[in-house]
Every structure is written in C-alpha cells, then in structure tokens.
Design goal:
Layout (H helix, E strand, L loop, with lengths): L2 H10 L3 H18 L6 H7 L5 H7 L9 H22 L5 E8 L11 E9 L6 H9 L20 H13 L3 E6 L6 E9 L4 E10 L5 H4 L5 H5 L12 E10 L8 H11 L4 E5 L9 H9 L31 E2 L3 E4 L22 H14 L5 H8 L5 H10 L13 H13 L15 H11 L4 E6 L3 E3 L2 E11 L10 E6 L2 E3 L7 H8 L19 E9 L16 H40 L1 H12 L3 H15 L23 E3 L62 H4 L16 E3 L6 E3 L8
Parallel strand pairs: 1-7, 13-15
Antiparallel strand pairs: 1-2, 2-6, 3-4, 3-6, 4-5, 7-9, 8-9, 10-12, 10-16, 11-12, 12-15, 13-14, 17-18
Length: 759
C-alpha cells in the first residue's frame, strides 16, 4: 500500500475526539495568522441593496461630471433642456435666463476651480408642489422614459443628478422656485437628496411673491438692463420655474464651454430667447486675457436692434424680417428669438412590431393580461402596436393558429415566439412620424445664420426612417466661407433632439458619417479618413423618439448602420449644393476677369477701328461693350440651391448667399456699368497714315475694382472723374512712340514700319 493510501486510511480511522482536536488546531493556526473563516452566511450578511443615486454618486463621471468645467456645463445643460421641454409642451415661446455667479472672486490665481451658484429661470408652466420632491430629489423619475415621443429629456436623471453633485461638492441644497399660476404666489422649496434612499429631504417649504428672484436683478452686470425693464421682468415671467444649484466648478470660454453650448442651443432652437449672465471672473489659463478684454466692455443702456443681412429668406407664412443675430455685451450675452413659431406638436405613438424583442413581447402580454382581464390577442395587437389594422391582426392570429377570440392569458410561450417571428417576416408600414418635430430647412438656415458668419448656407432635411422599429429623422446644414478660418479642419456641430453634443465626438455616428463622406467631390480638400479642410461648418441633427446614446451622459450617438447611412445622404445633398455653388462661382470669377481684360482694350480697339473705317468711335465702343457683356453674361448671374440663375436669392429654399465686400463676392461687381478707360492712343507712323501693327499696348487704368494681379497692399485707384474722359475722341488724342528695332548694319535703333495692319 502506498503512503497516500495509508494516510487516507489513518484519517478515516480517526475518532471523534481526534477530529475535534484537529479542528481546534486549525482554528488556532487561523487565529494566529489573522484570517477569519468566511462562510455563505457571513457573505450574505454583507450583501445589501444599492440605490441608483448611491451608485451614480460614486460613478458621477457616467453622468458627465468628470471634472469641474464639465460639471458646470452639464448642470446648465440639464436645466436648459428641462426648461425648453416644459415650455414647448405648454405651447409657450421659451424665454430662458441663465445666471452664473462666482462666489469666490478673490481666490488666488493658482486656483483651478471655484464655487459657483447657477440659476436657470424659464417662463414655462411651472411644477405642481407635490411633484417637486420627486422631480428634483430622485434619480430615474420622470414621465418621458416609456413614451415614444420626441423630447430632450428621456432618462429622468439630469437635473436631480446636478443637485446631487452640488450637494456632494458644496453641501448646499437645491433651491427651487416655481409658480404654476400667475394669480397665486410661488412655491419656494430647498431640498437635498439622500443618496442612501434616493429620496429628497426638504429643509424649506414656503410661499413667496419673489419670482423671479430679486437677487438676480441686483447683480452689477445687469443693472442697466433692469433700469430699462429688459431683464427678468414679471411681465415676461408670469409663470415658470427657477432652479439654483451651488457647486464646485470651473467657468472658462472656448470649446466645450457654457457659452458654446448656449450658442449651439440657440441655433437648433431659433424659437427660444436665451440670456446668459457671465460670472465676474473666469478660472484657468485664459482668465487674465479675458479679464482685460472684459474690463472695457459695459452693459448697454438698451439692447440695440439686430443688424439686417441680405439674402435672408422669410419663413413660410411670415413676412420677410431682418434676421436676428447674437449680441455679446461682455458680461451679458443675448441669443435672440429668430422665429415666433413653436415647433410642430408631437404625438405619442405605440411601439412598432419590428421594434420589440421576444422578452419585451412576453412582458407586454403579461402586463396586458393584468390590466385587461379577459382581453383577447386580437385587441392586444391593435391597442399596443402601431401599424396593425384589424385585418392584419386577424392574419397574425391565424398565422399562430389561434382565433380572434383567444385570450391573452391562453397564449403559450411557443405561440408568443411564433408571433414574434411573424412580426419580423410581415410587410408592415413604417411607424408614423408625427411623433417627431424636426427643425426644418428654413429654421436651420436662420439658426446657422444667427450663430455663424459665413458666405454660403445650405440645409437639407431627409425623409423619416426607422431603426429597431423606432422612427428617426436626419437634418444637415453647412456654412461656407465668410469669416471662417480657411486653413483649419471643418467644424462639426452635432445635435440630438435639438440638444448640442459637445463631447466624445470621435465616438459619435455623426462624426463618422462626416469623415466617410467624400468631400473632394465637392471641390474641398480632405485628408484620408479625416475631416474636410476649409472654411466650413457642418451641422447634423437627429430627431428620434429614443436617441441611442452611448452613455448616460448623452454625449454621442451610437453607430447604427441605418443612422449613419441617413446622415451621409443628408451631407451629400448639402455637399452637392456647395459644390455647384463653388464651381459656378469659379466660372463667374473667370468670366469676370475675362471681361476685365477685354474692357481694357475696348477704347483702343474702337479708336483704331474708327480711324480705319470712319465709324463713330462712341458707337463702336458701345457695340463692343454689348458684345463683351453678352459673351461673359455668366459673370452677372446669381445662383440658387441648384446652381441655376435666379433673380432673387430670398425666393429660393435651402440656400442663403450673403453678399459682402471681399474677394468672395468680386463677381457681383461685374454688374456695374463700365466706363470708358483712359488709354494711350496709337501714334501714327509714316506718310501712309497707318497704325504700326506692333505698337505697344496702351496702359490701362481701370476704374472698376482691381486687377487680379494687383497686390492687396496696392493703393486704391484714383477717382473716376480723373480717369474717365468726357468722350472717346478726347481720350484718343495722345499717340504712343513708334516701335524701334536695332539695325544690324548701323548698330542704331530705327523706327520700323510693318506695313498695313488690322488696326
């Protein structure tokens, strides 16, 4: 017998006393080593529930609170989104004011963050008192998660998460003021979230007439506007909600800032008026430069009227009005309302049969059975799904071998699985699209014009499509030229349900669609797999009942094939308009330069022809000028969205062309009536009285514009009265010197006579 076998036999033959002694020895060894005995019971005692607020408190980066700067932006974003949703659902044109107060203006220069108080006030319908604790003090509480209807908020996390972050970083509760009725006082509530229970703890609950807050109107930045009754008046805010969060953050301008977010929000929501009151000091590396600039800026005594711009079309059903542009006054920024119409009201729809999964279908059957006792499968299919008519519901019942009177409670799992397969194979109409509220082509153009100073604008709106049974719609717009940087890569502006997406650009389906589009087809430079290079801004908007975000922070759209394909098609449509415009503009510029060259010599040609034929020089000049215009007529054209000639750009849809001074619009100058040019007349040579064929070209002094070869630093041309003669004959008195040639026999220059010539 082996040693192993003998050892096992010895262990089996141990008595009870010996076994207890062995266990005691093991316990002593474990006690000496400091290890405790872990059993299933001890492990179970340590397990407990985790509330959703407790989870996100430890993982706040998932909600967009990665760093102080982003945390401040996320707080403003969630408050503004809620205000826009509330105003639109109530049929009120949004008027939103965002105030950022720096509570530590005397902090040292080395400080990388500060404590801010953020207040967002809207003129919406307000919130009933009993819902305030749930809306602002609980995560994952809301009315938008289950409904299939386009809205900005979906998860019920945003504004309550902002209050939770403020409580964690500063220990201060949220301050909410809401007035549902203009005839009643406002509710003033201060609450803090208990992350252990995911419930709100109210510390102050009272009524007040101080709405909007008087404290905000006492700020130094807005004192002049308050005196002019242009800031947070009770007339503009009869009802609404005010939310105040105190947090640790960082305010700094530039990309990914509050300023950029509100600017883009104003572009995608031209029906909203947004006012931003900046803090008195910024944090970070740029604060000294910004402070110096801001020190010279003063709040205006009254908001000036926005400047008008040419070529701006009017919206459908409204008169042509000067477009609104953003006004930056230093401490206050006003994003004015560009249109006075709310987006179309959306309707909630039922799920599409192809958009549900097997597990979801089984749960829907159970819920219907619980709510509708004795409900039939025939009724279930028509009530809980869209695009299922009575005949289609009857066909589904027959396909799984049940009757129209079969109750939902009698459906077996195998039959439910068979019904799910029938959903995937059936030819059903796509979901209805009245649940979406796209921005629209005209609103896109007005929004882009309000925020981007460019030369050419084009927009496109695609037909609705479906992914996973959920309808969505893609819109795109581009702005080219103007004040945009010509040497940088194009800027991509992304939106989802009218909300700007500022982070995780490379992970977004919109960005991937832009890089995959071949912009070289539209006369733009594009490195392989990168953004196009040039003075270009690209805007993409996705409207959907449920946007597939990549994370809870809602910063990027998931890369579904159906979504990326629609984005590329919308971009290609805008690109074709831009390419047509650029090619036509280049041709117009070439024809304009061709006309300029021809006009330089018309006077000389008319004079020479008059001397040969005896015709009137003025008549010859006019005839040649008519031929020049006829041959180069394309230089006088204006282009529409298809690159065709048009009379008035404002009558076209989908394109704006801004006429401004500079090289980009030199082609428009060709429409001016040219005048006679001062030339050096040809000096007659010889007794025959003929003009030498090789006479030098006369010096041209064009009155209109500059020649292409003229450097930018050249001095402007002299006044027209000094260059243009009173009549063609008066301009033809001077004669140039004859052409000289070296005589090889004598070695001297002698005048030459080449005999009769054309002129």
């Amino acid at each position: 017998m082996s040693k192993k076998g003998r050892s096992m036999d010895a262990t089996e033959m141990m008595t009870g006393a010996e076994t207890e002694a062995l266990e005691a020895a093991r316990a002593r060894v474990g006690k000496k080593s400091g290890a405790s005995k872990v059993t299933a019971e001890t492990m179970a005692a340590k397990q407990r529930d985790i509330s959703v607020s407790e989870f996100f408190a430890k993982n706040r980066h998932l909600l967009g609170f990665d760093n102080p700067r982003k945390a401040l932006l996320t707080t403003v974003k969630e408050a503004v989104d809620n205000s826009l949703d509330a105003c639109e659902e109530a049929g009120i044109l949004p008027d939103i004011t965002v105030v950022i107060e720096d509570l530590q203006p005397d902090r040292p220069a080395s400080a990388k963050s500060s404590r801010y108080r953020i207040t967002c006030v809207d003129n919406g319908p307000g919130i009933v008192k009993k819902q305030i604790e749930n809306v602002f003090g609980r995560l994952l509480y809301g009315s938008k998660f289950h409904r299939l209807k386009m809205s900005r908020g979906q998860q019920g996390i945003g504004i309550s998460a902002a209050g939770m972050y403020g409580l964690i970083t500063t220990g201060k509760p949220m301050l909410i003021q809401t007035r549902p009725s203009a005839q009643k006082p406002a509710h003033h509530i201060e609450l803090a979230m208990n992350t252990k229970t995911n419930r709100a703890e109210v510390t102050v609950d009272e009524e007040t007439d101080d709405f909007p807050l008087t404290r905000l109107r006492d700020l130094a930045q807005v004192r002049d506007l308050v005196q002019r009754d242009q800031f947070l008046t009770k007339r503009e805010y009869p009802t609404g909600t005010s939310v105040t969060v105190e947090l640790e953050g960082k305010y700094q301008r530039g990309r990914g800032s509050v300023d950029e977010f509100l600017e883009l929000t104003a572009i995608a929501n031209p029906h909203a008026k947004i006012t931003l009151v900046r803090p008195t000091r910024e944090t970070g590396e740029e604060e000294d430069v910004v402070e110096k600039k801001r020190g010279t800026a003063k709040a205006p005594a009254a908001l000036p009227a926005p400047a008008a711009a040419p070529g701006m079309p009017a919206g459908a059903g409204e008169p042509a009005q000067p477009p609104q542009v953003t006004e930056d006054f230093g401490p206050v920024v006003v994003f004015p309302r560009a249109v006075s119409e709310l987006p179309p009201e959306t309707k909630e729809i039922q799920p599409h049969p192809r958009g549900v999964e097997l597990g979801t279908l089984l749960q829907m059957l159970k819920d219907y059975e619980a709510s509708e006792k004795g409900g039939t499968l025939y009724s279930f299919l028509q009530e809980k799904f869209c695009r299922i008519s009575p005949p289609t519901a009857s066909d589904f019942c027959q396909a799984i071998k049940v009757t129209s009177r079969t109750k939902v409670a009698d459906i077996e799992p195998q039959q439910a699985e068979a019904l799910f397969k029938q959903f995937q194979e059936a030819k059903l109409a796509p979901p209805p699209t009245d649940c979406l509220a796209p921005i629209g082509v005209q609103q896109l153009l007005k929004g882009m014009f309000k925020g981007v100073r460019a030369e050419f604008y084009a927009a496109s709106s695609r037909e609705p499509n479906v992914y996973r049974g959920r309808p969505f719609l893609i819109e795109a717009a581009i702005a080219f030229g103007g004040e945009l940087a010509a040497d940088d890569s194009a800027r991509v502006i992304r939106f989802a349900n009218r909300v700007p997406l500022l982070f995780q650009q490379s992970a977004c389906s919109s960005f991937k669609a832009v890089t995959e589009t071949n912009w070289r087809n539209y006369d733009l430079q594009q490195p392989r797999g990168s953004l196009p290079v040039g003075p270009l801004v690209i805007m993409i908007h996705m409207a959907s009942v449920w946007v597939p975000f990549t994370s809870e922070s809602k910063e990027a759209i998931a890369d579904y094939d159906e979504i990326r394909k629609e984005i590329k098609l919308a971009l290609m449509e805008c690109g074709r308009k831009l390419g047509t415009y650029l090619r036509k503009r280049l041709k117009m510029r070439r024809e304009s330069e061709r006309r300029d060259i021809f006009e330089r010599y018309i006077g000389e040609i008319a004079k020479a022809t008059s001397e040969v034929t005896g015709e009137d020089a003025k008549a010859l000049y006019d005839a040649l000028l008519i031929q020049a215009k006829k041959r180069t007529a394309i230089a006088d054209m204006q282009l529409d969205d298809e690159g065709k000639a048009m009379e008035d750009p404002a009558d076209q849809e989908g394109v704006i062309v801004v006429e401004a001074a500079g090289p980009a619009v030199e082609v428009q100058e060709a429409k001016k009536e040219p005048v006679l040019l001062e030339v050096e007349p040809v000096k007659r040579s010889g007794a025959k009285g003929r003009t030498p064929k090789s006479a030098p070209a006369a010096e041209v002094k064009p009155v209109r514009g500059k020649a292409k070869s003229e450097p930018k630093s050249a001095k402007p041309a002299a006044p027209e009265s000094k260059l243009a003669p009173a009549s063609p004959p008066a301009a033809m008195e001077k004669k140039p010197k004859p052409k000289m040639r070296l005589n090889p026999k004598t070695g001297k220059l002698e005048p030459i006579d080449d005999g009769p010539g054309l002129f």
